[in-house]
Amino acid sequence: MGAGDDTKPAAMEVTSSPSSSPTPAPPPPPPPSVLRSVLLSYAYVGIWMSLSFAVIVYNKYILDPKLYNWPFPISLTMIHMAFCASLAFLLVRVLRVVDVPSPPQQAMTPRLYASSVLPIGALYALSLWFSNSAYIYLSVSFIQMLKALMPVAVYSLAVNLRTDAFRRATLLNMLAISAGVAVAAYGEARFDVFGVALQLLAVAAEATRLVLIQILLTSKGVSLNPITSLYYVAPCCLVFLTIPWYAIELPRLRAAAAGGRLASPDVFVFGTNSLCAFALNLAVFLLVGKTSALTMNVAGVVKDWLLIAFSWTVIKDTVTPVNLVGYGIAFLGVAYYNHAKLQALKAKEAERKAAATAVTKPDDDTEAGARLLPPDNKDGAGDGGHHKN
After folding, report:
1. 254: three-class secondary structure by DSSP
2. Mean per-residue pLDDT, 324-352
């Protein structure tokens, strides 16, 4: 009889009891359908892409002087932050849909909030302020092309702050992305120096925020999803935005109101715009939680192409052949960067599995050897004496 035949009676003896009737074990859950998992992943990607698309186009519609003509980006961002902070408080503290970090994780103490969350909130305020302001001066398509510089900014900061290692291949990849964006900028028909400066500042602020999240929060064991992130970050972001709003936009708002050039904000427009912004954060949580951050990066590249096509065909922004060639080069660089990250993640996972196998293998060999030794070898007699411990 084989070894497998000897294990079945033992299992039956363990599960049976002479004093009570045997309790049948519950049936194992059915394996998840591969097709269903694939369809759900595509659904999560589609929801995130649709909401991200909607928020970008909606912000452009509100801020553009040729469309809704409400060119007050700081005020718009403050409305978003107030709405998101209120809904996040409702979900976390009232409905308790999401829990705040607590032991065994690193709890959010006042000292940790002041040293970690406040700098991140300040950078988030700058990023939103500059990026929304750029929509007044630049086309949607060109802004998406400039956003391709995000991996370059993140990698450069990570190397300088020693959270990532310098690699020559990655440097060449970053140079290719930068060259592609430079070609796209050269071919831009509606090039505006101030608008480009605003978008580059937005990229720099967002890249710094992403790197600081890793340094100030992740390395300390604080894990925040988009809802708890908004719960902590949105209020301080709102406070930081009041400074440039008071100095820059409040005088303009007063002047526009005095001259009769300021239309009263449409509650429906700004309400649905804020709701889309909040729903986008929920979609990020859903997409990253059910797939991965790398999936979101890859989907983001596809979304950028769709936005460029939308800007070209619907908004009637000018997209030149040089634009497309330059962004095509940058797109290939970003695609290779995402591919390299995927390969690195696979290699790291393979190393982890190999290390786990190496740790458990000696114990398995020892147990197998003990089963093979005859009982009289325990005292070191005969040929097995050299195995004595």
Report:
1. helix
2. 86
